[in-house]
Known about the structure:
The structure is a homodimer of 461-residue chains. The first copy, chain A, has 14 helices and 18 strands. The first copy, chain A, has helices at 4-14, 23-26, 49-62, 114-123, 140-146, 153-156, 191-195, 229-241, 254-264, 284-300, 312-328, 348-362, 390-407, 432-445, and strands at 19-20, 42-44, 66-69, 86-89, 96-100, 105-109, 126-127, 163-169, 175-179, 204-211, 213-214, 218-226, 248-253, 274-282, 305-307, 335-342, 366-371, 376-383. The first copy, chain A, has a seven-stranded antiparallel β-sheet, with helices on both faces. Chain A has a five-stranded antiparallel β-sheet with strand order 5-6-10-8-9. A four-stranded mixed β-sheet of chain A has the order 1-2-4-3. The radius of gyration of chain A is 22 Å and the shape is globular. The two termini of chain A are 20 Å apart. At the A-B interface, strand 9, helix 7, strand 11, helix 8 and helix 10 of A face strand 9, helix 7, strand 11, helix 8 and helix 10 of B.
Amino acid sequence: xxxxxxxxxxxxxxxxxxxxxxxxxxxxxxxxxxxxxxxxxxxxxxxxxxxxxxxxxxxxxxxxxxxxxxxxxxxxxxxxxxxxxxxxxxxxxxxxxxxxxxxxxxxxxxxxxxxxxxxxxxxxxxxxxxxxxxxxxxxxxxxxxxxxxxxxxxxxxxxxxxxxxxxxxxxxxxxxxxxxxxxxxxxxxxxxxxxxxxxxxxxxxxxxxxxxxxxxxxxxxxxxxxxxxxxxxxxxxxxxxxxxxxxxxxxxxxxxxxxxxxxxxxxxxxxxxxxxxxxxxxxxxxxxxxxxxxxxxxxxxxxxxxxxxxxxxxxxxxxxxxxxxxxxxxxxxxxxxxxxxxxxxxxxxxxxxxxxxxxxxxxxxxxxxxxxxxxxxxxxxxxxxxxxxxxxxxxxxxxxxxxxxxxxxxxxxxxxxxxxxxxxxxxxxxxxxxxxxxxxxxxxxxxxxxxxxxxxxxxxx
Amino acid sequence: xxxxxxxxxxxxxxxxxxxxxxxxxxxxxxxxxxxxxxxxxxxxxxxxxxxxxxxxxxxxxxxxxxxxxxxxxxxxxxxxxxxxxxxxxxxxxxxxxxxxxxxxxxxxxxxxxxxxxxxxxxxxxxxxxxxxxxxxxxxxxxxxxxxxxxxxxxxxxxxxxxxxxxxxxxxxxxxxxxxxxxxxxxxxxxxxxxxxxxxxxxxxxxxxxxxxxxxxxxxxxxxxxxxxxxxxxxxxxxxxxxxxxxxxxxxxxxxxxxxxxxxxxxxxxxxxxxxxxxxxxxxxxxxxxxxxxxxxxxxxxxxxxxxxxxxxxxxxxxxxxxxxxxxxxxxxxxxxxxxxxxxxxxxxxxxxxxxxxxxxxxxxxxxxxxxxxxxxxxxxxxxxxxxxxxxxxxxxxxxxxxxxxxxxxxxxxxxxxxxxxxxxxxxxxxxxxxxxxxxxxxxxxxxxxxxxxxxxxxxxx
Lengths: 461, 461
């Protein structure tokens, strides 16, 4: 609990219009895309790195938690105030500072919404590839915190691959810059990539320097329907083996297709067991050639139907189906646990088989979709909290899922992070010396443990 | 100094055939590509992570420095035993463990020579892009330590962009794995990228897991000669602005051309002030189209001559000129200081102008070549140690060079690292709180400071 005296001091640092501790204001800042709920003591809307620094000085002195928050679209609870404390809402860091067309570099404040930034760079014919499904809500700072991936990662990589440098405030109060504003740089330890994916536990990012690439001249979206999930993911392996690198290779299982079909009107052919959404982009001639080869592979692999719309708008419609999946699954049950495990691409068919068995064993609907090109599958375990025993069944299933993933040399998270939801399982993947080392790194940044406590680590550090 | 008793103990850990403290054996392990000389106390050739762990236990107990060493081709002195101690020569970690064609992932021991690994993956039609100029000597472990870049970085990125995970031994003795063996992963802090570019000061890397890409089907090498350096780098900017992403965009100034011309027989046209080596690769049709556009841009920018050999062998000849530069500069003077600063691409012309002025002021030959596509210029300041005052003049010039680079918002090193040679200047680029934070990170890994001391930091930490 932050004392009244300290709340007053915070209000005076920020100005009363940028600070609140009124209960009704706090509620929305206690939850995120996990739908878990906690209650912060107050919310600050800082306007400058200097204000954040002053907040940290106070937090170290008075020992209250500070939880940075972008848009609250995180799927592992990274922005949740699990131990109460002060939410640092980064909304006011909302300026695109510079798009340097000559050097293909941009500087952006961390509260800028990713899609807004993307549109701005595309206006000058440039391209910022990372595109998490939450792109219209999530902020660049949140993307950095989680090392967000997205639909185009199979070709273009993830947030980490585009960030050159950061402006940040350390939990000890110092305002720092990391990395470079040039194409390359290796001076000192790579603080930039250490902060990327650190889930807001090491520093508060205020500015992001990213590299841009030329906007692809052309893109083509396709969709292939298959009888079985196994056939679908084997097609993915064959596309990759044939040296085509599509922009997107998205998988959706039968359960997902059922849910999406209703809302978007996908009209999947009868007998569809799974589908692939495929996109190629780049030079028009080359992309078309690749599209033809993708079609050949899909037909050889027994696709029930292959759609290759020539109009952009129809292509968008196919994407709509993919974007709609996550929300549409709530039709099946009011609650879900959404994981984003990764397995070796070549073992996806085996994994999908395992998943079907898991759903049968636990008599719960399970849906799988995601970035098949990366082996990054979003496994959704659906349940109804009000039905006794269903949450527990779901939780048992998650544990079995993770055991299988580790056995397959996979990882528990491809892009959502550990946060709160996966912290109890993190020891399945990270060894004791690795976790201890990470604990020492955390202490090197945040000796008093004030910044975003209760995340990543399975125990109090 | 390591005592006789400890030397004996080390010999028994490693076996006498994998350990030496004989003076004549030690000499070559005291130097590297910087040509600086120090003397280690002993050299170990460990064969397993477990042996390295036991060495570290002993080193912590007896407090002697341990200096990991790949091929000793580093240009900033990262492998030099500046405080004596034990050289950990990684020669025996020389196996390619797996090339997984289905998942486009390879596992390699850190002592494998980069070119050997590249040839192995190219045999199965895959591609590992990072290609430092030292590729036929340097090891993957050394490339990881320095985050090596190379000639193709403008299109394909640097070592960091291909490493998925590492096997490593911490200076506290624990054997760890970092990262993933899948396409993606974000569980816990990014130890993989923290170790990359840490110049062997945080852990000893024993295994490297890398992602591979399909081997480009076609490549085309071209060379353009210009009257002035300014025209040359402006051409680079125009190529980049025109949305072409060449594989390589290498610059060489007049001094370099003069040196190379003799040895390789370049026959540069009269009046040449600088040249560009350009390569495009990928799909044959697209690469040819890009080559045509590159030629158009060069001719519009007033190229004196444009070479576009159709035979592979002639293309190789052009590359030979580029690879020969570094060594051929010794014709001018017996000694040189070789820097690898980066400036914003758009300001290269300004920078080259500055450099010409610097050479005049200090009356020393200076040569510039390098990765113009990244703004990463290798500045060579030539001198003769035996001529009184020349080394001092060269050192003064380095300082002025660095001041200019920082003023231009550049960085002191694009790919060589800080090591010993740039440590005295690192405070020009890194702020006090950043260096202090890096010091705390170093302590979190290596509380007793036994691993590769005297590197990166400008003071004893």
